[in-house]
Specification:
Number of helices: 17
CATH superfamily of the largest domain: MFS general substrate transporter like domains
Largest sheet: 2 strands, antiparallel
Mean pLDDT: 81
Helix content: over 70%
Radius of gyration: 21 Å
Structural class: mainly alpha
Number of domains: 2
Shape: globular
CATH class of the largest domain: Mainly Alpha
Order of helices and strands: HHHHHHHHEEHHHHHHHHH
């Protein structure tokens, strides 16, 4: 539900823009603001689940998400819907690390590959089938208010899921942290939360506002954000050596599979997450497709993603590095295929994107499952929530950066070329492919190092 809320929004953006008279900057905040807050909340929420119990934290996050969905559905203006989307991001950020933390705690290492494979299938379906569901809702209800029911679906699902989660999620013993003298400590690292939150906001804000904030002075915020992030890492190292409980166990980054897995995942998500966003705008605003037609065009990506996630999970522990590398190749081939059919002379239909989208979906689903399994497989259970939250936060941050960069270039290209949506879409694809190619280079280099070892 939380990831569906990212993808299902793509086909609704034109309707929201017309209904609430939202600016281009506002549209980017509706998309990027959600993932920004999502990423901000993930790490402290993961540690909260470690220390307070995942069941309780999961239930609180779900309740916040349902309430924020109600507020989003009844929005009456640009500021209202942006704030409501930020509230949804808070709820989603509290929820997600509890899920991956539960998988880490419940399943022994040899079974986690299958569990993360099924989890990856859920991610693949929810992030990819959203445009079709959103298109159907808008087609049935209408373009003026159909987008409201897209968020209303969250409320209906949440009402069912809330009692089920309370009944079915097991009560697991929360981890007890002790200080150097053996005394139990469950306090949260408030300074770490503040430093990390400020660093992430300052790093991402200039990227999101790149079109609205003119001049180069905005990049000073990035420099300050880097300094704050460095201070955060120093503080976390200090906490791990003293009686304080760190927000993030920085020792995890010394595990090569963890650090490299996060880096590959960030590059991939920065490149691939912008595809549904720009494709939806291009098909609806550029070619004139309806919302449901747009959803149907994107559906093969969902089918490929769901099928490959579930199938690849069971083989991930044996052939994980090869599978991840092959998945990135498939995504790259899919992107190149979309760009190729996009240039067929005299062809105004975009149904010929179906096959390359399916290929890209196969690679995407496989990679999502693989990154989860390989990155977290050597993480101790005590740090399961925190580690999975760091992974998810990294992916959400890279998604925000990717959407912000591609979105800014996309709109800049549309405005500068008098509404040439095709060129704008092509440029967005090129940027996305560059990120995917960089992820492939890192994966191949790591694969050779592992094989040599």
């Amino acid at each position: 539900m939380t990831l569906l809320d990212i993808s299902i929004l793509n086909v609704a953006l034109p309707s929201i823009q017309k209904s609430l008279y939202v600016s281009e900057s506002g549209l980017q905040w509706i998309v990027c603001g959600y993932t920004l807050i999502y990423g901000l909340v993930l790490v402290p929420a993961g540690r909260l689940g470690d220390t307070r119990g995942r069941k309780m934290v999961f239930t609180i996050g779900l309740a916040i998400f349902i309430l924020a969905s109600v507020l989003t559905a009844v929005s009456i203006g640009e500021v209202w819907i942006i704030i409501a989307r930020l509230g949804q991001g808070v709820g989603a950020g509290v929820l997600m690390p509890q899920i991956t933390g539960l998988i880490q705690q419940i399943f022994p290492p040899l079974e986690r590959g299958k569990a993360f494979g099924l989890f990856g299938a859920v991610i693949g379906v929810s992030t990819s089938v959203g445009p079709l569901i959103g298109g159907m809702i808008i087609q049935i209800v209408g373009t003026s208010d159909g987008w409201r029911w897209i968020f209303g679906v969250n409320v209906l699902i949440g009402i069912v899921v809330l009692p089920l989660s309370y009944r079915l999620i097991p009560e697991l013993a929360e981890h007890r942290f002790v200080d150097g003298e053996g005394a139990e400590r469950n306090d949260l690292d408030l300074l770490g939360i503040v430093l990390l939150g400020l660093a992430m906001v300052l790093l991402l804000l200039p990227v999101i506002q790149i079109q609205q904030w003119h001049g180069n002075s905005k990049w000073l915020l990035v420099v300050i954000g880097v300094v704050l992030f460095a201070l955060f890492m120093i503080w976390e190292q200090h906490c791990s050596k003293t009686q304080h409980i760190p927000l993030v166990n920085v020792g995890l980054f010394r595990t090569r599979s963890f650090s490299v897995g996060i880096f590959i995942g960030m590059l991939f998500f920065a490149g691939s997450s912008s595809l549904p966003f720009t494709l939806s705008l291009y098909l609806q605003n550029g070619i004139g497709y309806t919302a449901i037609m747009t959803g149907l065009v994107i559906t093969p990506f969902a089918i490929g993603s769901a099928a490959s996630s579930a199938a690849s999970g069971r083989y991930m522990l044996q052939f994980g590095h090869f599978i991840v590398t092959g998945a990135l190749v498939l995504v790259g081939v899919g992107f190149i295929g979309i760009m190729a059919v996009h240039h067929i002379p005299g062809n105004t239909s975009r149904w010929n994107m179906v096959l390359p989208l399916f290929i890209a979906g196969l690679g995407s689903g496989t990679l999502i499952s693989g990154i989860q399994t390989l990155t977290l497989r050597k993480v101790p259970r005590n740090d399961a929530g925190s580690a999975s939250a760091v992974l998810q936060a990294s992916l959400r941050i890279s998604t925000t950066i990717g959407n912000a960069i591609v979105g800014s270039v996309f709109y800049s290209k549309v405005n500068s070329s008098h509404g040439n949506w095709a060129d704008a879409f092509q440029t967005g694809l090129m940027i996305g492919l560059t990120f995917v190619a960089a992820a492939l280079v890192v994966a191949v280099r790591y694969l050779f190092q592992v094989e040599r070892a």
